[in-house]
Write a structure and sequence with these properties.
Chain A: InterPro entries: BPD_transp_1_N, MetI-like, MetI-like_sf. Chain A has 318 residues and is mostly helical. Chain A contains 13 helices and no strands. Helices cover 76% and strands 0% of the residues of chain A. Chain B is of the alpha/beta class and 511 residues long. An eight-stranded mixed beta sheet of chain B has the order 9-10-11-2-12-19-13-22, covered by helices on one side. Chain B has a five-stranded mixed beta sheet with strand order 16-15-17-14-18, sandwiched between helices. A four-stranded antiparallel beta sheet of chain B has the order 5-6-8-7, covered by helices on one side. Classes of the chains: A mainly alpha (318), B alpha/beta (511).
Chain lengths: 318, 511
C-alpha cells in the first residue's frame, strides 16, 4: 500500500508528461522548415504538387484535427504509417527494438563494469594518488569527449585497420554471434565512454559522502573488516544516486543513441528517428519521440520504485 | 571492369544464354542512401532513381553516345513532327509473369501526366494529345505540338512502365511496392537498413541478370562504406566525394572509376528577391565572371572533372564555350567583374550561399567560391542547412541569395536547357527571371531536331543565359564507383545521362 501511494502521483505525472511530449513533438515538427513533399519531389516541388502530396497524406487538414486524429489512433495502438514506405511505423520500431536494446545493454554493461569499480576505488582512495588521478582522467575524458568525435576517430582507425572489428552495419546475434559482436562493440564502446564517466564520478562522489558518515567511523571502531564495511555500509548507502544516474543513462540509451547509430549505421531506434526527421516523415518521429519518452519516464518510475525498496524511509511520509 | 560500348549490345544479347550461371550468385551493393518514396513516377531524388533502375524499365534507354537505344520498346518511329509509334519488345514481362502490354504503357504515361500524381516529369513529356494501342505490341502517340525531346524523356527512369492492370485492380500499390519488368524484383526491405532483391525470372534478356540475388545494405557514412569495401562485405558502392579515389588508392583489390555524366554542379541565383544584391543583373554577371571554375575542379575534385556549361559538356556541343565566362583569362574576368560591381554601385556585396548539408562536396565548393568571389570584392558567407530546410528556402520561399546544388543533364541538351524557362520548370519560379525572348528561344529549340540549326539556336540561348546569370553551371559532376575487382566484374557506360550509373547491373558478374 505504501508503495502504491508512493507511485500513484508519479503515474499521473507520467501521463501528463507524455501528453505534453506528444503536443510538443507534433507542433515542433510542423514548425521546422520543409516538409515531406520537398523531400519526395526534391527541387521539383511546385505548389500544385505540394498540394497533391499534402492531400494524399492528410497534411492539408487543420493542425488541431491532425493532432486529435493522431492521438485518437495512438490510444488505439495505431502509431501511424511511414510516408516513405506506407508501412506501420510500430512494426519498424518492434523490428528495431532488439538492436537498440542490445546496444544499450552492452554500453550499460561496459559503463558499469568500468565505472563502478573505478568509482568505488577512487572514492575509498585505495588506489593511491596515482590511481585516483587515473580515475579522474577517465572521468574527465569521458565527460568531455563527445560521442561523435570518439565515434569518428574509431571509424577512421578501424576502417583503415580492421583489427577484427567491423565498421558499420549490423549482423543479428542469432545469425552470427561473432559477427554481431564485431559490429556492435565499437558503437557500444563509443556510447559507453560517457556512461563510464557518469557512473565513475557519481559513484566516487557518493562513496566520498558516505565515507564521512558517522556509521562508517563506528564500523571501523567496531573492528569490522574493510571488505564488509565497503559491501555492507558504503555500497548500499551510496547506491541511490548511482541508481538514479544509471537508470537515466539507460533511458537515454533506450531512447535511441541517435549520433552513434547514425555514425555506425546501426539500424536501431535512433537511426530510424533521425532519418524520419530528415525526411520529414512525421509519423516516425512522433512515434519515436513518444516511445523514447515513455521508456524514459517508465525507467524513472522504476528508479523511484527501487529507491523505495533500497531505502524504506523513501516514500514513508507519503 | 568492362567499359561498355553499347554498339555491341546485339552481340551480347545473342551470346546471352551462354552466360547463364549454374551456381547461386549474389551481388552486394553498398547503397549510400535510402529511397525517399516508392512511387517511381513521383520521387525526384537520385537515391530513389538508383533503386528504381533495378526493378523498373523504360521504353527507351541510351547508348554510349547518349543516343537513344531500345528498352522495353524494341523499335520506335517518328512518322510526323508530332506522331510517334513504339513497338514493345516481344517477351517483355513484369516480374509477376504478366506480359507488358500497350495498355500498361498508355496507362503509365497517362498517370505521369495526371496532376493528381504530382509527377515532376509531366512537363518533360510535353503535351500528349492522344495515345492508342496499335496491335498487340504497338503504341501510337500523338503530341499536340512538336517536342523533339519526347523520346529522350521516355528514357528517364521516372517514365518507367508500371503494371497498370494490377494497379487498377488494387493488387499493386505503387506508393508501397515495386513491381516492374527490370532485372530484379524486391524480395524484402528493411527501411534504412537493407534491401534484398532477387532475379526477375521473367526478365526478357535470357540469361540475365548474371547475379541471382542483389543484397543492398544502406550505408550512408563514407568511411563505413570504405571499411565495408576493404573487408569485402560489399562488392561495389559509389561516392559523391572524389577523395574516395585517394583513400582507396592503395587498397589492393579495390578499383575506383570516375564516370563522366551530363550532370553538373550549379548555382541558383536569386534575381527576384529585392533584398538580395543579386536582384541586380550587374551583380549577378560580376559573380558569374568572378567564379573560378578551374579552382573548383582542382581543389574540390582533384582535377577529375572540368568546368561545365548550361548545355552540358558531355554532349560535346560547342554552344556556350566561347563566352567570356569561360574563354576570357581569369585576371581579365576579375577586372571586368569589378567594373560591373562599380556600375551597380556596390563594390563589396555581402551575399550568403545556402547549401544543403546532405552533400559534403557542396560545402567544399562553397569554401572555394568564398575565396574566388572575394577577389572581386564579394563578401560571401556560407549557410549550410538540413535538406528539407534548404529545399523550402530555395524552391518555395525564395529566401536566399544564391545556393549550390546540381542539375541532371539527362540524355539530350534540349531537356536540361528547358529548366531556364521558369514557366516550364515552375520549380525555379521564385528566383528565376522570366525573360520572354529566352523562353521563346527555348520553346523553339524544343521543337528542333538535333543538327546545325539546333546547335546555332543553343549558342544563341547560351548567350542569353549568360547575360541573365540567373542559373549557373559550375563543373561537371562525375560519379565515383568503387568496387572489389576480386569479387565482381562490373560494366559501366562511358557516360551516364540520368544518374544511371548502374545501367548495366544485369551484366555485373559476381566472382
Amino acid at each position: 500500500m505504501r508503495l502504491f501511494l508512493y507511485l500513484l502521483p508519479r503515474l499521473a505525472a507520467m501521463i501528463v508528461t507524455l501528453l505534453g511530449v506528444s503536443i510538443l513533438v507534433f507542433l515542433s515538427l510542423r514548425m521546422i522548415p520543409g516538409g515531406y513533399a520537398d523531400i519526395l519531389l526534391g527541387p521539383f516541388v511546385t505548389p500544385a504538387a505540394r498540394e497533391a502530396i499534402s492531400q494524399r497524406y492528410g497534411l492539408d487538414q487543420p493542425m488541431a484535427l491532425q493532432y486529435l486524429r493522431w492521438l485518437g489512433a495512438l490510444l488505439q495502438g495505431d502509431f501511424g504509417v511511414s510516408m516513405v514506405t506506407r508501412q506501420p511505423v510500430i512494426d519498424e520500431f518492434i523490428r528495431r527494438a532488439p538492436v537498440t536494446l542490445e546496444l544499450a545493454l552492452i554500453a550499460l554493461g561496459l559503463a558499469l563494469s568500468v565505472g563502478l569499480p573505478l568509482g568505488v576505488w577512487s572514492g575509498i582512495r585505495q588506489g593511491g594518488r596515482r590511481g585516483v588521478d587515473m580515475a579522474r582522467l577517465v572521468g574527465a575524458l569521458g565527460a568531455s569527449v563527445p560521442d561523435f568525435v570518439l565515434g569518428s576517430v574509431l571509424i577512421f582507425v578501424f576502417s583503415v585497420w580492421s583489427l577484427w572489428f567491423r565498421v558499420g552495419g549490423y549482423v543479428p546475434f542469432g545469425q552470427d554471434p561473432v559477427g554481431n559482436l564485431q559490429t556492435m562493440l565499437l558503437p557500444a564502446l563509443t556510447l559507453s565512454l560517457f556512461g563510464i564517466a557518469l557512473v565513475l564520478r557519481t559513484t566516487r562522489d557518493a562513496v566520498l559522502r558516505v565515507m564521512t558518515e558517522g556509521y562508517i567511523t563506528a564500523a571501523v571502531a567496531r573492528g569490522e573488516r574493510p571488505r564488509d564495511i565497503v559491501r555492507l555500509h558504503i555500497l548500499r548507502n551510496a547506491a541511490i544516486p548511482v541508481v538514479t544516474v544509471v537508470t537515466t543513462y539507460f533511458g537515454f540509451l533506450l531512447g535511441g543513441a541517435v549520433v552513434v547509430e547514425v555514425l555506425f549505421s546501426v539500424p536501431g531506434f535512433g537511426l530510424y528517428i533521425f532519418n524520419g526527421l530528415l525526411n520529414r516523415d512525421y509519423a516516425i518521429v512522433q512515434a519515436g519521440v513518444l516511445l523514447a519518452a515513455t521508456a524514459f519516464v517508465a525507467i524513472n518510475m522504476l528508479a523511484d520504485f527501487l529507491y523505495a525498496v533500497i531505502d524504506p524511509r523513501v516514500g514513508a511520509s507519503e | 571492369m568492362k567499359r561498355r560500348n553499347l554498339m555491341g549490345t546485339a552481340a551480347l544479347l545473342a551470346l546471352a544464354p551462354l552466360a547463364v550461371m549454374a551456381q547461386d550468385t549474389t551481388l552486394t551493393w553498398g547503397k549510400p542512401a535510402e529511397i525517399t518514396g516508392f512511387d517511381v513516377h513521383v520521387a525526384g531524388t537520385v537515391a530513389s532513381w538508383e533503386m528504381y533502375q533495378m526493378v523498373y524499365e523504360t521504353l527507351l534507354t541510351t547508348d554510349a553516345d547518349l543516343g537513344l537505344a531500345a528498352g522495353l520498346a524494341e523499335s520506335w518511329e517518328q512518322t510526323s513532327p508530332t506522331t510517334y509509334t513504339l513497338t514493345l519488345r516481344e517477351g517483355a514481362k513484369f516480374s509477376n509473369g504478366r506480359a507488358v502490354t500497350p495498355d500498361d504503357v498508355i496507362g503509365s504515361l497517362e498517370r505521369i501526366k495526371n496532376p493528381e500524381t504530382a509527377s515532376y516529369w509531366s512537363p518533360q513529356l510535353g503535351d500528349i494529345a492522344s495515345m492508342e494501342a496499335d496491335g498487340e505490341r504497338g503504341i501510337k502517340v500523338e503530341l499536340a505540338s512538336p517536342q523533339a525531346t519526347f523520346l529522350p524523356a521516355l528514357a528517364h527512369i521516372t517514365a518507367a512502365i508500371l503494371p497498370m492492370q494490377e494497379l487498377k485492380d488494387g493488387s499493386f500499390d505503387p506508393a508501397a511496392q515495386m513491381l516492374g519488368s527490370g532485372p530484379f524484383m524486391v524480395e524484402s526491405h528493411k527501411q534504412d537498413e537493407s534491401w534484398t532483391l532477387a532475379r526477375n525470372p521473367h526478365y526478357w534478356r535470357e540469361g540475365y541478370p548474371l547475379a541471382d540475388m542483389l543484397e543492398v545494405p544502406i550505408i550512408p557514412d563514407e568511411s563505413a562504406r570504405i571499411a565495408a569495401l576493404r573487408d569485402g562485405r560489399i562488392d561495389f558502392t559509389s561516392f559523391e566525394n572524389p577523395d574516395a579515389q585517394g583513400m582507396l588508392a592503395n587498397a589492393g583489390n579495390i578499383k575506383v572509376e570516375a564516370q563522366q555524366t551530363t550532370n553538373y554542379y550549379r548555382f541558383d541565383v536569386n534575381a527576384l528577391d529585392e533584398a538580395s544584391p543579386f536582384h541586380y543583373k550587374r551583380v549577378r554577371q560580376a559573380m558569374n565572371l568572378a567564379l573560378d571554375r578551374d579552382a573548383i575542379n582542382d581543389f574540390v575534385f582533384g582535377g577529375t572533372t572540368a568546368p561545365d556549361y548550361p548545355v552540358p559538356g558531355a554532349f560535346g556541343k560547342e554552344a556556350c564555350r566561347d563566352l567570356d565566362t569561360y574563354a576570357m583569362p581569369r585576371d581579365q574576368r576579375l577586372e571586368k567583374a569589378r567594373g560591373l560591381l562599380e556600375e551597380a554601385g556596390n563594390t563589396s556585396p555581402e551575399v550568403a550561399l545556402t547549401l544543403s548539408s546532405a552533400n559534403p562536396v557542396l560545402g567544399r565548393i562553397g569554401q572555394v567560391v568564398q575565396q574566388s568571389l572575394g577577389e572581386a570584392g564579394f563578401d560571401v558567407s556560407l549557410d549550410q542547412v538540413p535538406t528539407a530546410e534548404y529545399l523550402q528556402k530555395v524552391f518555395t520561399d525564395g529566401d536566399f541569395d544564391f545556393s549550390a546544388s546540381w542539375l541532371a543533364g539527362y540524355t539530350d541538351p534540349g531537356m536540361v536547357i528547358k529548366w531556364w524557362n521558369p514557366e516550364f520548370a515552375v520549380w525555379n519560379g521564385v528566383f528565376q527571371e522570366n525573360v520572354p525572348e529566352l523562353s521563346q528561344a527555348l520553346d523553339d529549340v524544343g521543337a528542333m531536331q538535333d543538327g546545325a540549326e539546333r546547335d546555332a539556336k543553343l549558342t544563341e540561348i547560351c548567350r542569353m543565359i549568360d547575360d541573365g546569370a540567373n542559373l549557373l553551371a559550375l563543373v561537371g559532376k562525375s560519379d565515383y564507383l568503387a568496387y572489389r575487382d576480386d569479387q565482381v566484374d562490373v560494366v559501366l557506360a562511358e557516360r551516364s545521362g540520368s544518374a544511371n550509373t548502374y545501367q548495366f547491373i544485369a551484366e555485373f558478374e559476381p566472382k
